[in-house]
Design a protein that fits this description.
478 residues, mainly alpha, Growth Hormone, Chain: A, 2 domains, transmembrane
């Protein structure tokens, strides 16, 4: 054997992921955000169930969303530390987490329907937070164990929003007469029942897939190596006995890491920055309130297509985003165009808010233009996440995949709290008393960043409440 050759000794044969594993990942995605959708999509009904005025909608949604995202990040952080440090019991823990997520939905239902006329708002709030802790863990182990089938999980997440909205419409059709029915309790109650069913199916499928050793992390690693060997044989760089020729796979340094940088950028920008702008700024600050619902419906429907298309391409071809982004599959790097466009949209949104006399702001006064850029912005997000999240694993491995999730969640939470604090400060002023009128751009940026950070810290403290009803009413009073 010559000095430039190596031999691969593994006899493991490559096996593509089974249909049941793909189904388990799909239902994991479909179930993941169902409790958050109870808190947010069902917010208008929850307000009435808990005897709160409709004018408190914005404060209620902000408190629920901020709390769930913060505790989800804490959970993801703990989970990431575990999977980066240990390589044991992933499958068993993930099964336990899936079962726990189903049970927390049952508890959420009991808390929601109890408490008499006023209900148990604070208990409901903390149960939602508990669910966020569980689905934070769930995400970590999904990204660790999914492998190439992650595309089916990603495709299902936006579909859950359409499913919940459709379910709400149907429930309103049946029980919309408030003179005969307790409509608000029934709409959210049935939505939680749907969540119990979906999460139970997801838990059963997940347990069936990962209770067996064939889908263990070790077997997945062997499967990846076998696939790589098979591909090298097909390309002629490796003989069928495992002997490697020449300088195949001898890339070193940054060249070896280039394929994973692109999907990580897509993930961090695509998901990390989106909810700092949507929906509070785009479309919230760009169009009249009467247009917002229509724009949200368009966004909800269209945003389900990118991840679904990525999953379809990955299923029916050998050129999916869940394969290595090298050679003929390197065209996926061109999708960096989408996070770039997303950042351009974000800059335009900020310019409209702070330079109302600019040509950009004048252009955005047309609701069609504002709607177009809001939809474009969210489609760029959906495409970046659908492609980027799927592309990290095949170009690195499970540890980098969970690290990418952690970095994305950190970015999202930091920017969300800064954005919430910034919007709180922005709404205090009118143009006649604008605080940065005499400041230069750098000084103005520092002003808004400082105020956003201060208000954001106040919002973080507000998450840890013993009486949510009191805090929401006090926020309005001040």
């Amino acid at each position: 054997m010559s000095p430039g050759t190596t031999t691969t000794r593994s006899n493991h044969q490559y096996k593509p992921d089974s249909a049941i594993k793909k189904a388990a990942l799909f239902f994991a995605g479909l179930s993941l955000l169902l409790t958050m959708r109870v808190g947010l999509n069902g917010a208008a009904f929850c307000l009435k169930r808990f005897q709160l005025d409709e004018k408190l909608f914005g404060i209620y949604v902000s408190r629920i969303y901020s709390a769930m995202e913060l505790f989800c990040l804490m959970s993801v952080t703990i989970g990431t530390i575990y999977v980066q440090t240990y390589e044991k019991y992933f499958e068993n823990i993930s099964i336990g987490v899936s079962i726990a997520f189903s049970f927390i939905n049952i508890i959420l239902l009991l808390v929601f329907i109890s408490g008499g006329k006023d209900g148990r708002l604070t208990g409901f709030y903390w149960t939602l937070i508990a669910s966020a802790v569980i689905y934070g863990q769930k995400q970590v182990f999904i990204f660790q164990l999914a492998g190439e089938s992650l595309v089916y999980y990603l495709a299902a997440i936006p579909l859950s929003g359409i499913m919940v909205s459709t379910f709400q419409v149907l429930t309103l059709k049946l029980f919309g007469d408030r003179r005969r029915f307790n409509t608000d309790l029934l709409v959210v109650g049935f939505q939680i029942c749907l969540s119990v069913v979906i999460t139970s199916i997801a838990a059963i499928l997940w347990a069936q897939v990962f209770v067996k050793g064939e889908n263990s992390l070790v077997n997945q690693k062997n499967n990846r190596e076998a696939k790589k060997k098979q591909k090298d044989i097909e390309n002629g760089s490796v003989a069928s006995n495992g002997q490697t020729y020449g300088n195949a796979h001898n890339q070193v340094g940054i060249l070896k890491d280039l394929p994973v940088i692109s999907p990580m950028i897509m993930s961090i920008i695509g998901l990390g920055t989106t909810f700092a702008f949507y929906p509070s700024i785009a479309p919230g600050k760009l169009v009249d309130f009467k247009y917002i619902n229509n724009i949200d419906v368009i966004i909800m429907i269209l945003s389900s297509f990118p991840a679904a298309l990525v999953a379809i391409v990955s299923e029916v071809t050998d050129y999916g985003a869940n394969k290595e982004w090298t050679s003929t599959n390197g065209f996926w790097h061109a999708f960096l165009f989408f996070p770039f466009v997303q950042v351009v949209c974000e800059i335009l949104f900020i310019k409209v808010l702070h330079f109302p006399k600019s040509e950009t702001a004048k252009m955005f006064k047309n609701p069609r233009v504002a709607a177009f850029f809001s939809v474009l912005f969210f489609l760029c997000h959906a495409t970046s996440v659908g492609v980027g999240m799927a592309g990290v694993f095949p170009n690195s491995g499970p540890k980098t995949t969970t690290l990418n999730l952690f970095l994305t969640m950190c970015t999202m939470n930091i920017l969300n709290f800064l954005s919430g604090g910034y919007m709180l400060e922005y709404n205090k002023y009118d143009r006649a008393h604008w605080p940065t009128r005499a400041m230069g751009n750098c000084a103005a940026f520092r002003f808004w960043l400082k105020k956003g950070a201060i208000n954001g810290l106040v919002n973080v403290k507000a998450v840890f409440t013993r009486n949510l009803r009191r805090d929401i009413l006090a926020a309005v009073a001040t």
